[in-house]
Amino acid sequence: MTYCVGVALDGGLVMMSDTRTNAGVDDIATFGKMFVWEKPGDRVITLCSSGNLAISQAVVNVLEEGLPGDDGEPETLWSVPSMFRAARLVSRAVRAVFAEQGPVMKAQDTPFILSLLLGGQLAGRELRLFQIYSAGNFIQATTDTPYLQIGEHKYGKPILDRTLTFASPVEDAVKACLVSMDSTLRSNLSVGLPMDLLVYRRDALKVAAHHRLDENDPYFAGLRERWSEALRDAYQSIEAPDWLKDT
Length: 247
Known about the structure:
The protein has one domain (3-236): Glutamine Phosphoribosylpyrophosphate, subunit 1, domain 1. 34% of the residues lie in helices and 30% in strands. The chain contains 5 helices and 14 strands. It has helices at 53-65, 83-107, 157-163, 170-187, 218-237, and strands spanning 3-8, 12-18, 20-22, 28-30, 34-39, 43-51, 67-68, 74-75, 114-122, 128-132, 138-140, 147-151, 195-201, 207-213. The strands form 4 sheets. Strands 12-1-2-13-14 form a 5-stranded antiparallel beta sheet, covered by helices on one side. A 5-stranded antiparallel beta sheet has the order 5-6-9-10-11, covered by helices on one side. The longest helix is centred in the middle third of the chain and has 25 residues, at 83-107. The radius of gyration is 20 Å and the shape is globular. The N and C termini lie far apart (45 Å). The model has no long low-confidence stretch (mean pLDDT 95).
C-alpha cells in the first residue's frame, strides 16, 4: 500500500508520497510514486500513484508514449492545453491499461486497484488538483476541500482537517503534510520512508522544491519529535472527567 496527499492552495500546490511497495511482510521494496513533468515557463504537472505497482507503471508509460489526440497525433502531458485535458488524458490511459490487462488480471483473480493524484498548472491556466479512480473517472479539489488523499489516508486525515484551509500558507501545508505522513508511518507498516515532497507556487510555472526525505533528514526528525512531545503535553494537560473523581 502507500500514502499520498495533495493540497491545492491559494498560494500554490503541495504534493507528497511515500515509496514503500510490499507484496507481503517479507517482500518490501522502494519505488518512487511521484512523477513530474516540468517545462519552466510553460507547465508543471505532478502525478502520484497508489495501488498495484505494475498498473501504475503501465499508466505512466502510456502517458509518456501518448494516446491519439483529436488531430490523430499522440497527446501527452507535455502537449495537453489544460489541467482538465491532462486529467482526461490520464483517465484515458487508465482505461487503456484496464482494457489490455483487466481481463487477464480478472482471470487470475487479481483486482485492478489504482488511485492517482494529478496536480499542476499550465501557462495562462488555473492551478488544479484531481483524484483519478481506477474506473477512469475523477474529482477535483475545491476551495472548501483543498486537499485530496489516496492510499492509507485515514491516519493522516485528522491533522489536515484541523489545520488546512484554501487560504493556508504553503509553508503551513508542508508542515501539515509532514505531520500527516508521520502519523501514517507510526500506525501502518505498509507505508514507509523515504518520501517525496514537491512544492509549487501558483503562477511560478517552475517547481519551487522537490525533495526526498528519509529518517535521517534533520528537519523531519525534529518535526516528528516535537509533534510527539506536543501531543503528550496536550494529553497530559487535560484533566480527567469529574465523574471519575468519586469512583
